[in-house]
Amino acid sequence: MMLTADQLNAAALGSSDRIEDAFKLRSHIKAENVVIFMESYCPFCNRVVNAFIAANISHKRVLLDPAMRATLTRLTGQRTIPYVYVRGQFIGGCNDGPEDWMGALKLLQSGALHKMLSTSPLSTQQGYVEEKKQGIQELQIYDVVIIGSGMAGLTAALYLARAHRNPVVLAGNGYGQLMKTDMVHNFPGFPEGIPGPELMRNLRRQAETAGARILMDSVREVQLHLHPFKIKLVQNTLLARSVIVATGSSPRWLDLPHEKSLQGKYIHTCVHCDAALYKGLEVLVVGGGDSAMEAAVYLSRIGAKRVYVVHRRAQFRAAAVLVSQAKQRENIVFK
Prior knowledge:
By secondary structure, this protein is an alpha/beta fold. 33% of the residues lie in helices and 21% in strands.
C-alpha cells in the first residue's frame, strides 16, 4: 500500500476539519523529499531521525498534534509513530510499514531508500571525505555542535535554534545533574519549585520544538586542530564549524582507602538513587555546597536515623536558604 500526498484530499472528504488537516499534511509532505511526523519523546522517532542524520539524508521533522496524528492514523492504518513519507509516499514507521519489506530503517539499511531518492548510498553533500571499509563517505558539516545536554547545553541549543543555526546536541546518556535533583527552588517562574527531571524534560522539549537536534551518543574524541572541527562519537562522526563544550560537573571523590571497591555499596554520589537504602540508619554527608545540603535534607526526610554533615571549612558554600533548611531538621548534625 502506497499513500501519496495527492490521495490525502480524497481520503479526507466528508468533513471540513478533515479536509483542513489533509491539506496541512499535504503541504508538509510536498515540501520535502523526506518528512518524518513524530513526537519529541518517542524513542522510535529518535532512532529514525538519528539514522537519517548519520546517513546524511536531508529531511523535515514535523511534531504531531492530536488532530494531525488522528488523520495520519486514519489514512495509513498505522497507529504507531513515526510516520515517514519519502517523495510523497508513505513508507511506514521505524521498522514497520504497509508491506513486510518496508519501514524506514529496513529501507535505509537495504539501500532501497536511496533508490527512492535517486541518490547513491554515499552522501553527496559537501564535507570531509573519510575512508570506510565499504567505500568513501562525505561527512556533513554542522553549524554548531553542543557537547553536553544539561541546563547550559540545552539553553544554548534553544537560543541557537531560534537563531536558525540548526544546533546538534550530543546528550550522551543523560541530561545533567538536575536529573538527580529532587526540587529546584531558584529557577525563575516556579514559586513553589519544580522537580529537576521535569524541568529538564521541559527544556529538552522546548529546544527540540525550536529546531535543535538531540543525539543520544557519547563523544570519544574531539579534533580541534582541524577546521571544521571533527567530533568522533561512539556510533558516528560529525563535523562542526563551532563547538560548545557544556559538559558540566562530576562528583569529587575523597581518595579514601578502598573507596572504589565500596562505590555503590556504602559510598554513593546519587542521593536520590540510593537514599532509600539507609532508612533507619546513620549516614555521613561530606561537603558544604548546595548538593551536600540537598542530600542531607533529603536523607533526613525519607527516614535516615541521623545525618552527619562534615565540611572542612568554617563557612558553607551552599546557598543560605539550603543551609537554613538543613539546620531546621532535628536529625541533621553538623561536624
